[in-house]
Amino acid sequence: MNTVDISPLTRKLSTFVALSANELAVLERLYQRRRTFVAGRDLVEQGQSKQAAYILASGWVCSYKIQPDGTRQIVDFQIPGDFLGLRSVLLRTSDHSFEPITEIQAAEVLAKDLLEVFASTPRLATAVLWAASRDEAMVVEHLVGIGRRTSIARMAHFLLELGARLVLVGLGSRTGYACPLTQYHLADALGLSAVHVNRVLRQLRERGLVTFRDGWVTFDDHERLSELAGFDPAYLDQTGPLLR
Amino acid sequence: MNTVDISPLTRKLSTFVALSANELAVLERLYQRRRTFVAGRDLVEQGQSKQAAYILASGWVCSYKIQPDGTRQIVDFQIPGDFLGLRSVLLRTSDHSFEPITEIQAAEVLAKDLLEVFASTPRLATAVLWAASRDEAMVVEHLVGIGRRTSIARMAHFLLELGARLVLVGLGSRTGYACPLTQYHLADALGLSAVHVNRVLRQLRERGLVTFRDGWVTFDDHERLSELAGFDPAYLDQTGPLLR
Q: Name one Pfam family in it (chains A, B) (predicted).
Protein backbone atom coordinates (compact mmCIF):
# COMPACT_ATOMS: atom_id res chain seq x y z
CA MET A 1 0.00 0.00 0.00
CA ASN A 2 1.26 3.39 -1.00
CA THR A 3 1.40 5.93 1.82
CA VAL A 4 -0.68 8.43 -0.19
CA ASP A 5 -3.50 5.87 -0.10
CA ILE A 6 -3.67 5.74 3.69
CA SER A 7 -7.24 6.50 4.66
CA PRO A 8 -7.99 8.91 7.51
CA LEU A 9 -9.46 5.99 9.51
CA THR A 10 -6.25 3.97 9.15
CA ARG A 11 -4.29 7.02 10.13
CA LYS A 12 -6.46 7.52 13.19
CA LEU A 13 -6.53 3.90 14.36
CA SER A 14 -2.76 3.68 13.86
CA THR A 15 -2.50 6.22 16.66
CA PHE A 16 -3.71 3.52 18.97
CA VAL A 17 -2.64 0.21 17.43
CA ALA A 18 0.47 -0.48 15.35
CA LEU A 19 -1.46 -2.29 12.60
CA SER A 20 -0.10 -5.40 10.85
CA ALA A 21 -0.20 -5.80 7.06
CA ASN A 22 -3.19 -8.13 7.43
CA GLU A 23 -5.05 -5.70 9.71
CA LEU A 24 -4.37 -2.86 7.30
CA ALA A 25 -5.75 -4.96 4.44
CA VAL A 26 -8.92 -5.77 6.41
CA LEU A 27 -9.40 -2.10 7.22
CA GLU A 28 -8.94 -1.09 3.57
CA ARG A 29 -11.57 -3.64 2.52
CA LEU A 30 -14.05 -2.06 4.96
CA TYR A 31 -13.33 1.15 3.17
CA GLN A 32 -14.28 -0.07 -0.32
CA ARG A 33 -17.96 0.78 -0.66
CA ARG A 34 -17.50 4.55 -0.86
CA ARG A 35 -20.31 6.76 -2.04
CA THR A 36 -20.88 10.49 -2.38
CA PHE A 37 -23.64 12.16 -0.38
CA VAL A 38 -24.91 15.71 -0.87
CA ALA A 39 -24.92 18.31 1.88
CA GLY A 40 -28.08 18.79 3.93
CA ARG A 41 -29.80 15.47 3.39
CA ASP A 42 -29.76 13.11 6.40
CA LEU A 43 -27.73 9.92 6.00
CA VAL A 44 -29.32 8.22 8.98
CA GLU A 45 -32.42 9.35 10.78
CA GLN A 46 -33.24 9.16 14.46
CA GLY A 47 -35.41 6.10 15.12
CA GLN A 48 -34.30 4.33 11.93
CA SER A 49 -33.34 0.71 12.44
CA LYS A 50 -31.16 -1.83 10.64
CA GLN A 51 -29.11 0.88 8.99
CA ALA A 52 -25.45 0.54 8.12
CA ALA A 53 -22.60 2.44 9.73
CA TYR A 54 -20.32 4.63 7.63
CA ILE A 55 -16.68 5.57 7.66
CA LEU A 56 -16.27 9.19 6.68
CA ALA A 57 -13.63 9.61 3.96
CA SER A 58 -13.99 13.32 3.20
CA GLY A 59 -16.19 16.23 4.26
CA TRP A 60 -17.95 17.11 7.50
CA VAL A 61 -21.06 15.67 9.13
CA CYS A 62 -23.03 16.57 12.25
CA SER A 63 -24.92 14.17 14.49
CA TYR A 64 -27.93 15.58 16.27
CA LYS A 65 -31.11 14.84 18.13
CA ILE A 66 -34.39 16.64 17.64
CA GLN A 67 -36.41 17.15 20.80
CA PRO A 68 -40.20 16.72 20.86
CA ASP A 69 -40.52 20.53 20.90
CA GLY A 70 -38.53 20.78 17.66
CA THR A 71 -35.28 22.18 19.09
CA ARG A 72 -32.10 20.58 17.88
CA GLN A 73 -29.08 19.54 19.95
CA ILE A 74 -25.99 18.81 17.90
CA VAL A 75 -24.14 16.05 19.73
CA ASP A 76 -20.91 16.15 17.77
CA PHE A 77 -19.34 16.80 14.40
CA GLN A 78 -17.68 14.04 12.42
CA ILE A 79 -14.57 14.61 10.36
CA PRO A 80 -12.68 12.28 7.98
CA GLY A 81 -11.65 9.05 9.70
CA ASP A 82 -14.64 9.05 12.04
CA PHE A 83 -17.33 6.42 12.19
CA LEU A 84 -20.92 7.51 11.63
CA GLY A 85 -23.53 5.43 13.41
CA LEU A 86 -21.19 2.83 14.86
CA ARG A 87 -23.13 2.99 18.11
CA SER A 88 -26.39 2.58 16.18
CA VAL A 89 -25.29 -0.56 14.36
CA LEU A 90 -24.81 -2.24 17.71
CA LEU A 91 -27.87 -0.63 19.32
CA ARG A 92 -30.14 -1.56 16.41
CA THR A 93 -32.15 1.67 16.52
CA SER A 94 -30.35 4.89 15.71
CA ASP A 95 -30.69 7.26 18.65
CA HIS A 96 -29.82 10.26 16.51
CA SER A 97 -29.59 11.64 12.96
CA PHE A 98 -26.59 12.39 10.75
CA GLU A 99 -26.54 15.26 8.31
CA PRO A 100 -23.69 16.01 5.90
CA ILE A 101 -22.61 19.64 6.34
CA THR A 102 -20.63 19.56 3.10
CA GLU A 103 -20.68 17.08 0.26
CA ILE A 104 -19.07 13.98 1.70
CA GLN A 105 -17.61 10.66 0.70
CA ALA A 106 -18.40 7.82 3.06
CA ALA A 107 -17.92 4.05 2.97
CA GLU A 108 -20.87 1.96 4.03
CA VAL A 109 -20.10 -0.74 6.60
CA LEU A 110 -22.75 -3.37 7.26
CA ALA A 111 -23.18 -4.72 10.78
CA LYS A 112 -22.24 -8.23 9.64
CA ASP A 113 -19.00 -6.98 8.02
CA LEU A 114 -18.08 -5.25 11.23
CA LEU A 115 -18.78 -8.30 13.38
CA GLU A 116 -16.73 -10.46 10.99
CA VAL A 117 -13.83 -8.03 11.27
CA PHE A 118 -14.08 -8.18 15.06
CA ALA A 119 -14.00 -11.98 14.96
CA SER A 120 -11.09 -12.26 12.53
CA THR A 121 -8.92 -9.38 13.79
CA PRO A 122 -9.43 -8.79 17.53
CA ARG A 123 -6.76 -6.09 17.63
CA LEU A 124 -8.85 -4.11 15.19
CA ALA A 125 -11.85 -4.63 17.47
CA THR A 126 -9.81 -3.12 20.29
CA ALA A 127 -8.84 -0.21 18.05
CA VAL A 128 -12.48 0.39 17.14
CA LEU A 129 -13.37 0.25 20.85
CA TRP A 130 -10.63 2.81 21.42
CA ALA A 131 -12.16 5.08 18.76
CA ALA A 132 -15.61 4.61 20.35
CA SER A 133 -14.15 5.41 23.79
CA ARG A 134 -12.58 8.55 22.41
CA ASP A 135 -15.89 9.58 20.83
CA GLU A 136 -17.57 9.04 24.19
CA ALA A 137 -14.90 11.10 25.96
CA MET A 138 -15.69 13.94 23.55
CA VAL A 139 -19.41 13.73 24.26
CA VAL A 140 -18.57 13.84 27.98
CA GLU A 141 -16.54 17.00 27.39
CA HIS A 142 -19.49 18.54 25.55
CA LEU A 143 -21.76 17.60 28.46
CA VAL A 144 -19.39 19.26 30.91
CA GLY A 145 -19.12 22.23 28.57
CA ILE A 146 -22.86 22.82 28.39
CA GLY A 147 -23.37 22.00 32.07
CA ARG A 148 -20.48 23.91 33.61
CA ARG A 149 -18.43 26.10 31.26
CA THR A 150 -19.02 29.77 30.50
CA SER A 151 -20.01 30.41 26.89
CA ILE A 152 -16.56 31.81 26.05
CA ALA A 153 -14.68 28.86 27.60
CA ARG A 154 -17.13 26.49 25.91
CA MET A 155 -16.45 27.98 22.47
CA ALA A 156 -12.68 28.04 23.07
CA HIS A 157 -12.70 24.39 24.18
CA PHE A 158 -14.75 23.39 21.17
CA LEU A 159 -12.46 25.09 18.63
CA LEU A 160 -9.36 23.60 20.29
CA GLU A 161 -10.80 20.09 20.34
CA LEU A 162 -11.70 20.26 16.65
CA GLY A 163 -8.20 21.49 15.90
CA ALA A 164 -6.57 18.59 17.74
CA ARG A 165 -8.83 16.06 16.01
CA LEU A 166 -8.10 17.51 12.57
CA VAL A 167 -4.34 17.45 13.19
CA LEU A 168 -4.59 13.71 13.88
CA VAL A 169 -5.95 13.03 10.38
CA GLY A 170 -3.71 15.52 8.60
CA LEU A 171 -6.33 18.24 8.10
CA GLY A 172 -5.09 20.93 10.45
CA SER A 173 -2.07 22.35 12.17
CA ARG A 174 -1.32 24.13 15.40
CA THR A 175 -1.93 27.42 13.59
CA GLY A 176 -5.46 26.56 12.41
CA TYR A 177 -7.77 24.68 10.09
CA ALA A 178 -10.45 25.01 7.40
CA CYS A 179 -13.89 24.85 9.00
CA PRO A 180 -17.23 24.75 7.10
CA LEU A 181 -19.41 25.27 10.19
CA THR A 182 -21.86 28.16 10.37
CA GLN A 183 -22.90 30.14 13.44
CA TYR A 184 -26.08 28.01 13.49
CA HIS A 185 -24.07 24.81 13.80
CA LEU A 186 -22.05 26.32 16.62
CA ALA A 187 -25.22 27.54 18.33
CA ASP A 188 -26.95 24.14 18.15
CA ALA A 189 -23.83 22.37 19.40
CA LEU A 190 -23.00 24.72 22.25
CA GLY A 191 -26.51 25.53 23.48
CA LEU A 192 -26.18 29.22 22.55
CA SER A 193 -28.17 31.52 20.27
CA ALA A 194 -26.63 32.52 16.92
CA VAL A 195 -26.35 36.11 18.21
CA HIS A 196 -24.53 34.90 21.30
CA VAL A 197 -22.18 32.82 19.12
CA ASN A 198 -21.24 35.93 17.17
CA ARG A 199 -20.60 37.91 20.33
CA VAL A 200 -18.41 35.18 21.83
CA LEU A 201 -16.41 34.80 18.60
CA ARG A 202 -15.87 38.56 18.51
CA GLN A 203 -14.63 38.55 22.11
CA LEU A 204 -12.19 35.73 21.37
CA ARG A 205 -10.91 37.58 18.30
CA GLU A 206 -10.59 40.92 20.10
CA ARG A 207 -8.66 39.28 22.92
CA GLY A 208 -6.17 37.99 20.32
CA LEU A 209 -6.89 34.32 21.02
CA VAL A 210 -8.60 32.82 17.96
CA THR A 211 -10.18 34.10 14.75
CA PHE A 212 -12.95 32.27 12.90
CA ARG A 213 -13.52 34.00 9.58
CA ASP A 214 -14.29 33.01 5.96
CA GLY A 215 -14.28 29.29 6.73
CA TRP A 216 -10.97 29.31 8.51
CA VAL A 217 -10.10 29.01 12.21
CA THR A 218 -6.79 30.66 13.07
CA PHE A 219 -5.25 30.16 16.49
CA ASP A 220 -3.79 33.56 17.31
CA ASP A 221 -2.56 32.39 20.73
CA HIS A 222 -2.99 28.65 21.19
CA GLU A 223 -1.52 28.64 24.68
CA ARG A 224 -3.65 31.40 26.18
CA LEU A 225 -6.72 30.01 24.44
CA SER A 226 -6.05 26.58 26.00
CA GLU A 227 -5.67 28.26 29.38
CA LEU A 228 -8.97 30.11 29.03
CA ALA A 229 -10.74 26.89 27.96
CA GLY A 230 -9.12 24.70 30.60
CA PHE A 231 -8.27 22.50 27.61
CA ASP A 232 -6.32 19.35 28.47
CA PRO A 233 -6.14 17.17 25.32
CA ALA A 234 -5.38 13.97 27.31
CA TYR A 235 -8.92 12.68 26.67
CA LEU A 236 -8.20 12.67 22.93
CA ASP A 237 -5.37 10.20 23.59
CA GLN A 238 -3.23 11.08 20.62
CA THR A 239 0.19 10.36 22.05
CA GLY A 240 1.15 7.22 20.10
CA PRO A 241 0.21 3.55 19.94
CA LEU A 242 -0.52 1.62 23.14
CA LEU A 243 -0.72 -1.72 21.32
CA ARG A 244 2.42 -2.52 19.35
CA MET B 1 -22.95 -22.48 36.81
CA ASN B 2 -25.89 -21.98 39.09
CA THR B 3 -28.34 -19.26 38.03
CA VAL B 4 -28.06 -17.57 41.44
CA ASP B 5 -24.37 -16.98 40.63
CA ILE B 6 -25.07 -15.02 37.44
CA SER B 7 -23.33 -11.70 37.81
CA PRO B 8 -25.10 -8.47 36.82
CA LEU B 9 -22.51 -8.00 34.03
CA THR B 10 -23.30 -11.43 32.57
CA ARG B 11 -26.96 -10.66 32.85
CA LYS B 12 -26.49 -7.37 31.07
CA LEU B 13 -24.23 -8.63 28.26
CA SER B 14 -26.59 -11.56 27.70
CA THR B 15 -29.14 -8.98 26.61
CA PHE B 16 -26.96 -8.41 23.60
CA VAL B 17 -25.11 -11.67 22.96
CA ALA B 18 -26.32 -15.20 23.61
CA LEU B 19 -23.13 -16.23 25.44
CA SER B 20 -21.56 -19.67 25.01
CA ALA B 21 -20.37 -21.75 27.97
CA ASN B 22 -16.79 -20.76 27.17
CA GLU B 23 -17.66 -17.06 26.92
CA LEU B 24 -19.53 -17.28 30.23
CA ALA B 25 -16.49 -18.88 31.86
CA VAL B 26 -14.18 -16.15 30.51
CA LEU B 27 -16.54 -13.48 31.81
CA GLU B 28 -16.71 -15.10 35.24
CA ARG B 29 -12.91 -15.19 35.41
CA LEU B 30 -12.81 -11.44 34.75
CA TYR B 31 -15.11 -11.15 37.72
CA GLN B 32 -12.83 -12.90 40.20
CA ARG B 33 -10.76 -10.12 41.75
CA ARG B 34 -13.61 -8.57 43.74
CA ARG B 35 -12.89 -6.09 46.49
CA THR B 36 -14.96 -3.91 48.78
CA PHE B 37 -14.62 -0.12 48.61
CA VAL B 38 -16.06 2.35 51.10
CA ALA B 39 -18.45 5.13 50.13
CA GLY B 40 -17.06 8.58 49.39
CA ARG B 41 -13.45 7.72 48.55
CA ASP B 42 -12.56 7.98 44.84
CA LEU B 43 -11.70 4.72 43.09
CA VAL B 44 -10.11 6.42 40.12
CA GLU B 45 -9.14 10.04 39.90
CA GLN B 46 -9.28 12.37 36.93
CA GLY B 47 -5.85 12.55 35.29
CA GLN B 48 -4.67 9.27 36.82
CA SER B 49 -3.00 6.97 34.34
CA LYS B 50 -2.37 3.24 34.05
CA GLN B 51 -5.26 2.42 36.35
CA ALA B 52 -7.38 -0.71 36.06
CA ALA B 53 -11.01 -0.81 35.03
CA TYR B 54 -13.60 -2.29 37.37
CA ILE B 55 -16.79 -4.25 36.98
CA LEU B 56 -19.32 -3.10 39.55
CA ALA B 57 -20.84 -6.07 41.41
CA SER B 58 -22.94 -4.26 44.01
CA GLY B 59 -23.63 -0.70 45.12
CA TRP B 60 -23.76 2.60 43.26
CA VAL B 61 -20.97 4.80 41.89
CA CYS B 62 -20.92 8.20 40.22
CA SER B 63 -18.49 9.36 37.56
CA TYR B 64 -17.74 13.06 37.48
CA LYS B 65 -15.46 15.78 36.26
CA ILE B 66 -14.29 18.72 38.33
CA GLN B 67 -13.96 21.97 36.43
CA PRO B 68 -11.04 24.35 37.01
CA ASP B 69 -13.44 26.61 39.00
CA GLY B 70 -14.26 23.73 41.37
CA THR B 71 -17.77 22.98 40.15
CA ARG B 72 -18.63 19.35 39.62
CA GLN B 73 -20.47 17.81 36.69
CA ILE B 74 -21.67 14.27 37.32
CA VAL B 75 -21.48 12.48 33.97
CA ASP B 76 -23.35 9.35 34.94
CA PHE B 77 -24.14 6.90 37.72
CA GLN B 78 -22.94 3.30 37.56
CA ILE B 79 -25.04 0.44 38.85
CA PRO B 80 -24.22 -3.29 39.22
CA GLY B 81 -23.13 -4.81 35.91
CA ASP B 82 -21.58 -1.58 34.66
CA PHE B 83 -17.94 -1.05 33.83
CA LEU B 84 -16.05 1.68 35.65
CA GLY B 85 -13.24 3.27 33.71
CA LEU B 86 -13.42 1.04 30.64
CA ARG B 87 -12.91 4.09 28.47
CA SER B 88 -9.95 5.12 30.60
CA VAL B 89 -8.13 1.80 30.25
CA LEU B 90 -8.07 2.29 26.50
CA LEU B 91 -7.42 6.04 26.68
CA ARG B 92 -4.53 5.62 29.14
CA THR B 93 -5.38 8.73 31.14
CA SER B 94 -8.66 8.78 33.06
CA ASP B 95 -10.71 11.75 31.91
CA HIS B 96 -12.88 11.67 35.01
CA SER B 97 -13.17 10.43 38.59
CA PHE B 98 -15.24 7.65 40.14
CA GLU B 99 -16.70 7.90 43.61
CA PRO B 100 -18.64 5.12 45.34
CA ILE B 101 -21.96 6.53 46.58
CA THR B 102 -22.54 3.49 48.77
CA GLU B 103 -20.18 0.75 49.91
CA ILE B 104 -19.51 -1.22 46.76
CA GLN B 105 -18.05 -4.48 45.56
CA ALA B 106 -16.09 -4.23 42.35
CA ALA B 107 -13.85 -6.60 40.40
CA GLU B 108 -10.61 -5.15 39.14
CA VAL B 109 -9.86 -5.79 35.46
CA LEU B 110 -6.39 -5.02 34.19
CA ALA B 111 -5.96 -3.65 30.67
CA LYS B 112 -3.97 -6.71 29.63
CA ASP B 113 -6.72 -9.09 30.87
CA LEU B 114 -9.26 -7.18 28.86
CA LEU B 115 -7.16 -7.21 25.70
CA GLU B 116 -6.58 -10.96 26.11
CA VAL B 117 -10.31 -11.51 26.44
CA PHE B 118 -10.88 -9.49 23.29
CA ALA B 119 -8.34 -11.59 21.41
CA SER B 120 -9.61 -14.96 22.63
CA THR B 121 -13.38 -14.28 22.54
CA PRO B 122 -14.26 -11.72 19.85
CA ARG B 123 -17.99 -12.06 20.53
CA LEU B 124 -17.32 -10.85 24.05
CA ALA B 125 -15.40 -7.92 22.58
CA THR B 126 -18.49 -7.08 20.53
CA ALA B 127 -20.65 -7.35 23.66
CA VAL B 128 -18.31 -5.02 25.54
CA LEU B 129 -18.44 -2.59 22.60
CA TRP B 130 -22.22 -2.83 22.79
CA ALA B 131 -22.11 -1.93 26.50
CA ALA B 132 -19.74 0.97 25.74
CA SER B 133 -22.08 2.16 22.94
CA ARG B 134 -25.01 2.02 25.33
CA ASP B 135 -23.05 4.03 27.91
CA GLU B 136 -22.29 6.60 25.24
CA ALA B 137 -25.95 6.74 24.19
CA MET B 138 -26.78 7.56 27.83
CA VAL B 139 -24.21 10.35 27.97
CA VAL B 140 -25.72 11.73 24.74
CA GLU B 141 -29.16 11.69 26.39
CA HIS B 142 -27.72 13.58 29.36
CA LEU B 143 -26.17 16.12 26.99
CA VAL B 144 -29.50 16.62 25.24
CA GLY B 145 -31.21 16.82 28.64
CA ILE B 146 -28.96 19.59 29.92
CA GLY B 147 -28.89 21.35 26.56
CA ARG B 148 -32.54 21.19 25.60
CA ARG B 149 -34.94 19.75 28.20
CA THR B 150 -36.87 21.70 30.83
CA SER B 151 -35.80 20.87 34.38
CA ILE B 152 -38.94 18.82 35.02
CA ALA B 153 -38.59 16.78 31.80
CA ARG B 154 -34.88 16.35 32.55
CA MET B 155 -35.58 14.90 36.01
CA ALA B 156 -38.40 12.68 34.70
CA HIS B 157 -36.15 11.33 31.93
CA PHE B 158 -33.35 10.69 34.39
CA LEU B 159 -35.53 8.73 36.83
CA LEU B 160 -37.05 6.67 34.00
CA GLU B 161 -33.67 5.83 32.51
CA LEU B 162 -32.30 4.66 35.85
CA GLY B 163 -35.42 2.54 36.31
CA ALA B 164 -35.00 0.83 32.94
CA ARG B 165 -31.30 0.18 33.60
CA LEU B 166 -32.01 -1.31 37.03
CA VAL B 167 -34.73 -3.60 35.64
CA LEU B 168 -32.17 -5.04 33.22
CA VAL B 169 -29.96 -6.25 36.09
CA GLY B 170 -32.84 -7.37 38.31
CA LEU B 171 -32.72 -4.41 40.72
CA GLY B 172 -35.96 -2.65 39.87
CA SER B 173 -39.41 -3.11 38.45
CA ARG B 174 -41.89 -1.04 36.50
CA THR B 175 -43.29 0.18 39.82
CA GLY B 176 -39.98 1.55 41.15
CA TYR B 177 -36.55 0.97 42.66
CA ALA B 178 -34.33 1.60 45.67
CA CYS B 179 -32.17 4.68 45.04
CA PRO B 180 -29.37 5.94 47.31
CA LEU B 181 -28.91 9.27 45.52
CA THR B 182 -29.20 12.56 47.39
CA GLN B 183 -30.52 15.87 46.10
CA TYR B 184 -26.88 16.93 45.70
CA HIS B 185 -26.15 14.03 43.34
CA LEU B 186 -29.23 14.88 41.32
CA ALA B 187 -28.26 18.56 41.23
CA ASP B 188 -24.69 17.85 40.05
CA ALA B 189 -25.95 15.43 37.39
CA LEU B 190 -28.78 17.55 36.03
CA GLY B 191 -27.16 20.99 36.21
CA LEU B 192 -29.70 22.25 38.80
CA SER B 193 -29.35 23.66 42.30
CA ALA B 194 -30.36 21.45 45.23
CA VAL B 195 -33.28 23.80 45.94
CA HIS B 196 -34.43 23.47 42.34
CA VAL B 197 -34.16 19.67 42.56
CA ASN B 198 -36.49 19.69 45.56
CA ARG B 199 -39.00 21.89 43.79
CA VAL B 200 -39.01 19.72 40.66
CA LEU B 201 -39.40 16.51 42.68
CA ARG B 202 -42.33 18.08 44.56
CA GLN B 203 -44.00 19.06 41.28
CA LEU B 204 -43.60 15.52 39.88
CA ARG B 205 -45.07 14.07 43.10
CA GLU B 206 -47.98 16.52 43.23
CA ARG B 207 -48.83 15.77 39.61
CA GLY B 208 -49.10 12.10 40.54
CA LEU B 209 -46.23 10.99 38.27
CA VAL B 210 -43.34 9.81 40.44
CA THR B 211 -42.38 9.93 44.12
CA PHE B 212 -38.78 9.91 45.35
CA ARG B 213 -38.81 9.53 49.13
CA ASP B 214 -36.80 7.68 51.79
CA GLY B 215 -34.42 6.12 49.28
CA TRP B 216 -37.16 4.78 47.07
CA VAL B 217 -38.38 5.91 43.63
CA THR B 218 -42.02 4.96 43.00
CA PHE B 219 -43.51 5.39 39.55
CA ASP B 220 -47.04 6.60 40.26
CA ASP B 221 -47.88 6.87 36.56
CA HIS B 222 -45.14 5.43 34.36
CA GLU B 223 -46.95 6.20 31.12
CA ARG B 224 -47.68 9.87 31.75
CA LEU B 225 -44.21 10.34 33.20
CA SER B 226 -42.69 8.89 30.00
CA GLU B 227 -44.85 11.22 27.97
CA LEU B 228 -43.74 14.27 29.95
CA ALA B 229 -40.09 13.24 29.60
CA GLY B 230 -40.32 12.29 25.93
CA PHE B 231 -38.71 9.05 27.11
CA ASP B 232 -38.12 6.50 24.36
CA PRO B 233 -36.03 3.64 25.81
CA ALA B 234 -34.83 2.44 22.37
CA TYR B 235 -31.35 3.85 23.06
CA LEU B 236 -30.99 1.45 25.99
CA ASP B 237 -31.43 -1.44 23.53
CA GLN B 238 -32.85 -3.94 25.98
CA THR B 239 -35.06 -5.93 23.63
CA GLY B 240 -33.18 -9.24 23.40
CA PRO B 241 -29.95 -10.59 21.91
CA LEU B 242 -28.85 -9.47 18.46
CA LEU B 243 -26.02 -12.02 18.31
CA ARG B 244 -27.20 -15.60 18.81
A: cNMP_binding
Query: A140-236 has which CATH code?
Result: 1.10.10.10
Question: Is this prediction's ipTM beyond 0.85?
Answer: no
pLDDT beneath 70, residues of chain A: 1-5, 50-51, 92, 239-244
* Binding-face residues of A in 132-171 toward B, CB within 8 A: 132-137, 139-144, 146-149
State the pLDDT at residue B243.
58
The CATH number of domain A3-138, selected from 3.40.50.1110, 3.40.50.11600, 2.60.120.10, 1.10.10.60: 2.60.120.10
Q: Is residue B169 within 8 Å of B239, Cβ to Cβ?
A: no
- Domain B3-132, CATH: 2.60.120.10
- Quick: pLDDT tens for A177-205: 999 999 999 999 999 999 999 999 999 99
Strand (E) or helix (H) holding A146: helix A122-148
Fold classification of B139-236 (topology level): Arc Repressor Mutant, subunit A (1.10.10)
**Cβ separation of A136 and B135 shorter than 8 Å?**
yes
Cβ–Cβ gap A137/B65 under 8 Å: no
Is A130 close to B90, i.e. CB distance below 8 A?
A: yes
Give A172 to chain B, closest Cα distance, Å.
22
